[in-house]
Amino acid sequence: MNRPTLDDATLLARLRELGEVGRGADGRLTRLAGSAADGAGRDLVAGWMRAAGLAVTIDAVGNLIGLWQGSAPVGAAPVMIGSHIDTVIDAGIYDGCYGVLAGLAVIEALQAAGTRLARPVALAAFTNEEGVRFAPDMLGSLVYAGGMAPEEALAIRGTDGVTLREALAAIGYAGEAAPGFLRPHAYLELHIEQGPVLEHEGIAIGAVDRLQGISWQSFRLSGEANHAGTTPMALRRDAGLVAAQAIAFLREAIAPRGGTTLATVGTLSLDPGAINVIPGTARFTLDLRDPDEARLAAAEQRFATALRQLAEAEGVTVETTRLARFAPVLFDAGLVARIEASAARRKLSCRRITSGAGHDAQMLARICPAAMIFVPSQGGISHNPREFTSPRQLADGAAVLLDGVAALAAPPGPAGAAQGGS
Amino acid sequence: MNRPTLDDATLLARLRELGEVGRGADGRLTRLAGSAADGAGRDLVAGWMRAAGLAVTIDAVGNLIGLWQGSAPVGAAPVMIGSHIDTVIDAGIYDGCYGVLAGLAVIEALQAAGTRLARPVALAAFTNEEGVRFAPDMLGSLVYAGGMAPEEALAIRGTDGVTLREALAAIGYAGEAAPGFLRPHAYLELHIEQGPVLEHEGIAIGAVDRLQGISWQSFRLSGEANHAGTTPMALRRDAGLVAAQAIAFLREAIAPRGGTTLATVGTLSLDPGAINVIPGTARFTLDLRDPDEARLAAAEQRFATALRQLAEAEGVTVETTRLARFAPVLFDAGLVARIEASAARRKLSCRRITSGAGHDAQMLARICPAAMIFVPSQGGISHNPREFTSPRQLADGAAVLLDGVAALAAPPGPAGAAQGGS
């Protein structure tokens, strides 16, 4: 049996080829879930899967899964890898696609090396991970993990009013299989970091041991609009001021530099919105994240308290709406250790890292041991055509994925095995 | 000779009648400068002027001036009173109109008492005081006072693209007289406070001794947009945060409660404006006011310095644009004293007060001694259909105006005089 060797050139070529599917005349790449471009991208990937001898199945919410049974006993739970191929608007070519195509490269490398499997390997491209067209995000994997009923998901209307059911039918990906029909033994997802940490620290591999909890809220502050020139400061009920004080407090006391809690006020608007009118209304959103549930909940509490106190001092009232709340996810310690061991063996710098963004892996973690492998993102940029990871970095990540799959699906033993190499 | 008696009932009736000119089917009152409604309002007021025997003149920028020569020697500089009759959108009925119609009531009262004038009395309704349709505001009185050439003013395009020249011609108020053709001996303007101070303190009359300076600026802060979940706090360049910190600093250090400086951030927007994206750009405006020029300039300086420091700490750049800057105006001490004396004589509570808003009087102050008389605004509300001042309060203000005009135009002496009464 040979040491498996990854075909990095083909991986790169396929990333670029898939990256042209959905590229408009204006040069922008957009492959929204369930769109014609998404259909064409799925066809391309499914074609590669079939050419590699995988049995391709589409489930009822369009999740695309290719199974390499090989010599594995029927009924053995598969090792699952993959990610997603839908994109945001004006996207890069790596987000999600890297994990799916690297997964295919891993399977082909193991096949070429004559690997005898103890477990099948399943490669998944999950539906609507990005959440741009249909909400919520990670929709396909959420349903796959039993977190939402298929019928409920299929009835969701996208931003253009079309339901997921209609969209999948239109592109020929309304499948028969029940989501979750294959319960994985483990799930490993390779992905670009989409943040600046690995590049900033010069690290090659991120062993993702957890995924942050996320709290999204919106606030509406109501004071009193008034003339900017004739209203003494002492008689004002300035909703914009209270919003500003609360935002300053966030950085000072809740999410200081160097802490684990992240706080972002991405939207803020004042009404009536005239240069010489004290704002009677202010609206803003708050995105809070922390890998620790207790700290995340404490951050929400402390902000609510501070906001209430600031508002009272100015005669302003507060109305809070919760938009989303996901608890942190702890990935599987054993899988994380395997990732670190692989990196060490290959002399690749490695550190544990928290995923700041949501991923399909956080859904799969509900039904099996799961973990992620990160590679650096240049400038931390993602969701942007300038998204970039070098061929060397892509190859290193794929090698670590190969090691993980080989260890889980074809562990060393008398019946033949494969040791990740190349 | 009789003691002059104001006809308060007619004043009130005329206020209400003028308040119906430009009231739409939706019940909203709007009489923008140079509009058909403004034309109709002018016709109504000019008609009342002529009925009172005033010689009506329209100047080249549409200022409407009625002159009561009476027995005054030809060539004596007139005592000028008045205000404006154009309104904002969805306006109240008192702003500006009260000063013009009370001025007419004062003239009629002096006429009815057989007053022998030492000086003529001129009643003015200045064009485009509000600045809603044509900028800047106080346009007619600005030109009257020599602050802008008539041709320049006539060429100004309004918000609908029509020039002032075209608008005045369309309503028949493109006059022949040169603006400023009558140089006043003094100017007294009666107006609602448009702020909460007089009502808050239970004071009947405001002797307006100064008008605040005003500074309008806009700021554009540029940082870097980034993923809210994957960007550590230490690596952020959050333009929204810097804006918030600067706004909080304003209240804390530049315009605290109880001070003379007023600071208002009435507009604020973030880009790209998504819940999970760190705002790379923030834009906001700052309205600063103070009755003291040195303090106003210092406030501008201190804010600029603080903003620069806050921005540097976050890796954000600042671009500043000056939108408007008017120095404070000191009204005539002698006229202010007359107002206080009149209130005392009539046993009306009175206090000196700074005008927070701009008025035609600040332009007339450039060419003659000028002052203003304020009456309370309920709730401090103006530029709003809920604008209200009670009939008693309106009558008290008109009485103080009467005293002022009588003292200036028909001072006590051997040739006969009038002492304000009623």
Describe this structure in words.
Two copies of one chain form a homodimer. The first copy, chain A, has 422 residues and is α+β, with helices and mostly antiparallel strands. Helix content of chain A is 33%, strand content 21%. Chain A folds into two domains: 8-212 and 329-409, Zn peptidases (Aminopeptidase, 3-Layer(aba) Sandwich), CATH 3.40.630.10; 213-326, Alpha-Beta Plaits (2-Layer Sandwich). The first copy, chain A, is built from twelve helices and 16 strands. In chain A, strands 1, 2, 3, 4, 5, 6, 14, 15 and 16 form a nine-stranded mixed beta sheet that branches. In chain A, strands 7, 9, 10, 12 and 13 form a five-stranded antiparallel beta sheet that branches. Chain A has a two-stranded antiparallel ribbon with strand order 8-11. Chain A is elongated and about 85 Å long. The two termini of chain A are 14 Å apart. Chains A and B meet through strand 8, helix 8, strand 9, strand 10 and strand 11 of A and strand 8, helix 8, strand 9, strand 10 and strand 11 of B.
